[in-house]
Amino acid sequence: MLSDSDFRFALQQIEGRQRTRDKLPTFAAIDGWLYPPRLNLEQCSSERTARFKASLLSTLNSQLSTLNLIDATGGYGVDTFFMSEQAAETYYFEQNTELAAIAENNFRLAGKSVHVHPEPFTAQTLSTFDFRLSTIIYLDPARRDTHGGKVFRLEDCTPNVINIVRYIREMRAIRTDMNIRIVLKLSPMLDFHQAVRQLGGTWDTFVVSVNGEMKELLLLSEGSGKVHAVMLSDDSEQVFTFTPDEESRAEVQYLPANMSLTGMHVYEPDAALLKAGAFRLISARYRLMKAALNTHLYFADTNQAFDCKGRTWQIIAVYTRVKDVQRALACAGVTHANVLARNYVLPADTLRKQFRLKDGGDDYIIGCRAGEAGAGQPILLHCKRVENVQG
User: Fold this and answer.
1) pTM for this model (two decimals)
2) Do the Cβ atoms of 188 and 275 come closer than 8 Å?
């Protein structure tokens, strides 16, 4: 008979495999793979985003010849596992000894040569390493306080990445032969402009989405100051790269006043593009008309092709009053619709109640402000979803 602790561990393994079969398919295919508690599984990277980080290291590896990797916040070891493929030597640090033991077992099971350190990583830990070889330090600081609540500010995360970055700069000032770059994984909710200002120096920013959902925010030190909106799907990758200066100088075409929108396409950019803040450049690069200054919807003729990830609808009708939408939908026998509010005067839930609609179906009602004059005028778009028109 199993003891209570063995029984709980067995349940943890069954649940872990079931929960991560889609998120981490490589692990699910390995016999004897061990899974950590649920919270660690929820917090770990997906295989898709971990493989992207490995590809980022692959690019750096081609520039730096020999690369060592230090994962200072190893956790379950997902990122360590995939990024280690691009490193000559890999060092994994994790202060949770139980989690470190699970990771060490899994690395050994998969034939990964990883130096496992079941201890916290601090700025002083760096003094024990020989940095004559090019080194990437990967930091995914814990974003929870001592009570388990989520934190978003850089200075509230553990370990203190600001202190670590400062210590590395002090070391490099003394030892000019050191070649260290840092990859920070931060909360997708964080203002990355503020984070870069706090950290100082020049960083590349990678804003990563998977299948249209915002997933990760990465900062790479010693960069060029560029912002990369990385849009991943199960089998593709699209990257939209720009500088903040390019965004501020981009010329935007707004919707002309009184323009007929019926029959046109309306496009909402992928979450990575919106988080990256490429609001003006989307209009300039793809020759799309922007709805209004603070309405991040874009309009195009139905015969205009543009290769950009996001959601696209075709406009069936345009209204200015809720009761006109109610009347038109009732006449058409529409009882279900997806209601969205984008910089509109009412939130989506309130609109849905006013329309007396059930959620779902093929119809979309999008409330937004549109027009080139100032903030734009409130309008309601009745739409149908279409595939993005790609050239």
Assistant:
1) 0.92
2) yes
